[in-house]
Amino acid sequence: MKKADRLLQFSMSPTIMVRMSALTLFISLIAGVVVTATAGQGVTCRREIPGELIRELWNRTNVLINKLPKEERFSRQLRLLPKFCTKCSERSIGWLDLQKIIDIYQASVFSRAAIKKFLPQHYDELLYRLHHTLQHCVSSSKHSKYSKTIKKMARKIKKRRDEGALKAVREFSFILRWIDELM
């Protein structure tokens, strides 16, 4: 028997075929677990946050913005929210970042007396539902890659007090848009 025939016979043996398919299955299972572990958080949040909640918050936020006093000319130039993107690789925002921003908004913006008097009916309940859902579906053991940027935003809001809170309310629609784009 020639060497090439023996090599062909060896490569076609059933034992080798079974081992190769078992190895391929094992590798694909490991790859599937890794993909599921990293993408699972996004899938859960997409499934957990109802679209109706975001639409209702969007509508009531527009009502709230229309009720607010007119913006000062000098504060228009100030942007509180960092520039994030949901569809690009640079500066992409994730669910954990959104959860941290919503936490800041609840603690520093929507709890201020200057804002509370303008809030539409049931706005607090809608924000609580969004906040609670994000807490439920986001793993807080991970660290946000934009935590310094988000903390800087929180300092800007607190530093400007009521003016910062009013500006932050006007920018809340960006956050709702980011959530909608991630869904």
UniProtKB/TrEMBL annotation:
Domain of life: Eukaryota
Protein name: Interleukin-26
Gene3D superfamilies listed in its UniProt record: 1.20.1250.10
Natural source organism: Xenoophorus captivus
